[in-house]
């Protein structure tokens, strides 16, 4: 009887130990997998020093600011309408996603900008000895700057990048024409532009080539580039290339026509800028250059005539 009780206790003990081991294995298996994966990463990165060194070598904005803005932007992103998010994404794409900014980071900046600038404007208005009207205008300007500054900066960056693309399009198309005439395919011509030139347009062409290597069709990759940059001249060029592919016409002939058209449009824009120059010079001429000329030309005469004017004035009294 005692042997039977001892056997039952042993069986219960073994069952408890087996169940405990099973629960432990199930509960800590993900942790074990994570530890093993982390160990493999450390081994592949040279005992972890290289990986940590790479993280520390990254700029401060990518290590600290970007994760902080991303967490704040996640909250704002959830309450922002989808149309506003799409519009901001299009502007960021057209601007080339400047300064590691995504939609969430930009939304966080849009919220933090008035939070920082408006109290600063309120504090400075209380410190500076301003009249009542100037004090109110200063506070209103602080509110406007805080709310509109991120969007204004993004718009200016987008316009500057589009201007660079328009200016470099003629040189890029000319290089494509030379490459295609030399027997290189259109993809090879785009690769030469991406390798030889520098700027946003070669970067976009390099992205197009990378998307083509990943399986996207050339027409779709070019259309995405035109939609992403939002430049009318580039959209016209992409539409011509797509039409040539659909109709089966010669790419070289289309490139020659496009090169001539792009050069003519660039010359036309230069003539328009030259025609607007006199109007733009009117303001600095009237308010800055003419007064200096009057002082230089009439100043000596006024100084010489001052005694005579003083005598005439005294004789009149």
Strand content: under 5%
Which spans of ≥5 residues are poorly predicted at pLDDT below 50? Answer: 11-37, 42-52
The average pLDDT score comes to: 79
For the report, how would you describe the main beta sheet?
A: none
Structure classification: mainly alpha
Shape: flat
Query: In the CATH hierarchy, what is the architecture of the domain at 163-270 at level 2?
Result: Up-down Bundle
SS field, number of helical segments: 11
Question: Secondary-structure element sequence?
Answer: HHHHHHHHHHH
| CATH C-level class of the domain at 163-270 | Mainly Alpha
DSSP, total strands: 0
- What Rg do the Cα atoms give? 35 Å
CATH superfamily of the domain at 163-270: Type II secretion system (T2SS), domain F
Output the CATH topology of the domain at 163-270: Receptor-associated Protein
Helix content: over 70%
How far apart the termini lie comes to: 145 Å
């Amino acid at each position: 009887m005692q042997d039977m009780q001892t056997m039952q206790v042993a069986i219960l003990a073994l069952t408890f130990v087996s169940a405990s081991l099973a629960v432990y294995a199930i509960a800590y298996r993900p942790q074990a997998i994570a530890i093993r994966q982390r160990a493999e990463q450390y081994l592949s990165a040279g005992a972890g020093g290289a990986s940590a060194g790479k993280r520390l070598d990254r700029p401060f904005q990518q290590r600290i600011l970007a994760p902080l803005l991303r967490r704040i932007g996640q909250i704002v992103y959830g309450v922002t309408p989808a149309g506003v998010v799409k519009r901001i994404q299009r502007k960021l794409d057209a601007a080339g996603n400047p300064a590691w900014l995504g939609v969430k980071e930009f939304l966080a900046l849009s919220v933090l900008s008035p939070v920082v600038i408006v109290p600063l404007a309120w504090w400075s208005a209380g410190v500076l000895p301003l009249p009542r009207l100037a004090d109110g205008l200063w506070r209103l300007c602080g509110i406007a700057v805080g709310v509109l500054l991120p969007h204004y900066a993004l718009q200016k960056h987008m316009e500057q990048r589009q201007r660079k693309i328009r200016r470099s399009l003629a040189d890029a198309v000319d290089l494509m024409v030379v490459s295609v005439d030399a027997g290189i395919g259109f993809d090879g011509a785009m690769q030469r532009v991406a390798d030889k030139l520098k700027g946003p347009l070669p970067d976009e062409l390099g992205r197009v080539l990378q998307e083509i290597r990943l399986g996207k069709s050339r027409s779709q990759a070019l259309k995405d580039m035109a939609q992403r940059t939002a430049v009318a001249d580039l959209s016209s060029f992409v539409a011509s290339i797509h039409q040539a592919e659909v109709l089966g016409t010669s790419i070289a002939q289309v490139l020659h026509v496009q090169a001539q058209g792009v050069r003519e449009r660039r010359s036309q824009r230069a003539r328009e800028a030259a025609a607007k120059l006199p109007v733009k010079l009117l303001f600095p001429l009237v308010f800055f250059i003419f007064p200096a000329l009057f002082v230089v030309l009439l100043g000596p005469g006024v100084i010489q005539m001052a005694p005579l004017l003083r005598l005439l004035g005294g004789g009149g009294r």
